[in-house]
Amino acid sequence: MFNEEKIKSFSATDMRIYNYILKHSIQFPYMSIRELADEIPTSTASIMRFVKRMGYDSFPELKYAYKKGEKEVSLYMVNNLDETIDCLKKFNTPYYQDLFKEIAYILGDANMIIFDGMGDSAKIAEYAARRFSGNGFFSAALTDPYQKVSMDGTNIVVVMLSISGDTVELIRKANAYKVAGSTLITITASDDNTLAKMSDHNISYYVNDVRTEEMSRTTQVPALSIIEILSNTTQRICHNTLQ
Q1: How many CB atoms lie within 10 A of CB 47?
Q2: pLDDT tens figures, 127-175
Q3: What's the sign of the alpha-carbon dihedral 138, 144, 150, 154?
């Protein structure tokens, strides 16, 4: 509802109205235009100018749209929780357990592990590098989308995290990693994307990729769980091998 372009066009008064609505999101849909004007405080004429700038013809129409948007977000959060729980349960199936073990052997045998991603996935990549480093594996996060890939060494494994798997910058880096001779592992929300098809090994966790105009609302819980499973499995396999 409040996208970046509209917010950029706000006057000082518009911004006060906007901030009040966000801070009082529960009360706002039930307020009259006079009540809102008194609370801010501003004039009802200023509120109507705000309504028009937002693309609505009346104050009740603005309230209805806002309430509808809040309800959709709430329903999404409930449904997304169910989807996330179902996704995590899949990781206990023989298919995923065998896949995790296969990937863990590759990671445990690597001379170096690089984790890469963009946006929220970059944060997961950074966490993954710390997690694996803490378990004694030489790991690093390279999350600058414009960083030139220059690999020096053999048996380097790259783990790329991406929800869509079709981010142009990551595809470019994936190609550079492969040209350099690295083993490419991808963790994506589905297997029907460019990164999954480019990779030597792919882990797809199959959740809906939910996006708004402003941002992705897709959960990162499955990707985070996969990292922790791989970290624990790799450590266990290497520990057993050494004994």
Answers
A1: 20
A2: 999 999 999 999 999 988 877 776 766 899 999 999 999 999 999 999 9
A3: positive
> Distance between CA atoms of 69 and 87, rounded to whole angstroms?
26
pTM of the complete model: 0.67
* DSSP H stretches of helix in the chain: 4-8, 12-23, 33-39, 44-53, 59-90, 94-109, 120-134, 168-179, 194-198, 221-242
* CB-facing half-sphere around the CA of 237: CA atoms within 13 A: 18
117: CB partners within 8 A, 6+ apart = 123, 124, 125, 143, 160, 161, 162, 170
The torsion angles phi and psi of 30, rounded to 5 degrees, stand at -110, 5
Rounded Cα distance between 202 and 210, Å, is 21
Q: What are phi and psi of 198, to 5 degrees?
A: -80, -25
Contact assessment for residue 104 and residue 237, using Cβ atoms and an 8 Å cutoff: yes
